[in-house]
Write a structure and sequence with these properties.
This is DUF4268 domain-containing protein. This protein is an alpha+beta fold and about 375 residues long. About 35% of the residues lie in helices and about 25% in strands. The radius of gyration is 21 Å and the shape is globular. The two termini are about 20 Å apart.
Amino acid sequence: MYKINKTSNNVEKLDERLFKELNIRERDHLQEWIAKNPEMLGEDLLIIQKEFDGFNDTNERLDLLAIDKDGGLVIIENKLDDTGRNVAWQALKYTSYCSTLTNSQIIKMYQAYLDKWQNGDDAKQNLLDFLEISEDELLLNRNDQRIIFVANNYRKEVTSTVLWLIKHDIQIKCFRATPYSMGEDLFLQIEQIIPLPETAEFMIDAKEKQKEESDKSKTVEESEIRLVKFWSLLKTKLAERNINFLERISPKPSYSIGFTKGSGYYGFCIGRQTFRVELYFSNDITKETIDSMAKYKEAIEGSFEGKIEWERLENKKASRIRFDMTKEQVSKLEGKFSDELYWDDLINWYSDAMFRFYNAVNPYFEKIR
C-alpha cells in the first residue's frame, strides 16, 4: 500500500506490519473497530451482540453477531495475525446455535446488547428502522445464516474448508485485515479475499434447493426472484450507460441495492409508497456527518433538478439525504413494482436519478471525508 504525495507527485510506501508488533489485541481493538464500523465489511450491517455466551449448555463465546438488510443473521469471527486451525469449525458451531433463534429471542439478545454496550435504545424499533419495514413485516432469521471471517493470515486448512463449504451453498466471506505504518501513523486495510468480489455473483444460486413451502413462503420466494431479476436489469442498464455504481455488487432479494463510499451508502431503494435514491449514514449518532453535509445544502440543491430531502433522523443512530420519485411519477407507474410492464420506466428513473444525485452530492461528501 502506498500513500499519495501530491506535492511531490510521487507515492510513499507504507510498511506492512503484524498486529502483535503494534500491541493490537483481538477483543480490545480489532473486534471493537468492526463493532463500531461494520460497513468496513462491505455492506450495511447492524451489530446486535458481541462476546455473546448465552447459548444453552455451552461455554462458547461468539465474537460478533449482526443482522443484514434482509433480516438474516451474520456470525462474525475475527482473529489477528493467524486464524488458527479450528476457526471454521468454531464458526459452524455458533451458526448452528443461531439457526434456531426466533424473532423474540433475537430482539431480547439485541436489547441486552443495547443495555450493556450502547445507550439502551429500543431493540425492536432499531430493527424496524434498520430494515425499513413495519412491525407486521418483521421476520428475522428465516434464511440460512451467514459467516464472515476477519484475519490477517488464513491457514490452508481453513481456506480449503471455506471453499468446500461455499461450494455446498454455505454463505461465507473471508476478509484480510492488514495493519500498515508510516512513522507514528497507523493504517488498516480490510479487503475481501474469498470469494473475490468480482466473481462472487457467479457463485450465487449455483444449486437451488427444492423444498415444500407454505403459500406464504412461495409468495416470499416469488418476490425474492422478482427483486433479483429487477436489480440485475438495473445493473445491466447502468453498465450500458458506462456507470459503474453496481459493477462489483451482486443483485440480492432485497428492497435496496447500493454501494459503500467511506461511511456512506448510496442506495437504490424500493419504499413502501415510493421509490428513491439516497446517501445513508448508518453510524451518525452525533449527526456530525449530516450537519457537515448540510453546510453545502444550497450548493448541492442548486446543482440538482428535483427536491432533495435532508433527514437527521433525530434520536436515531443513522441519518440520510434522499431524493424520491414524485407523486405524479409514482401515480403513472400505479406504484406497481410487482408488474414488470412498468420496469423499463422505473429502471430508467433509477439510473438517471442516481447519476444526477451522486454527481450533485458526492463532491461535497468527499470534502467532508
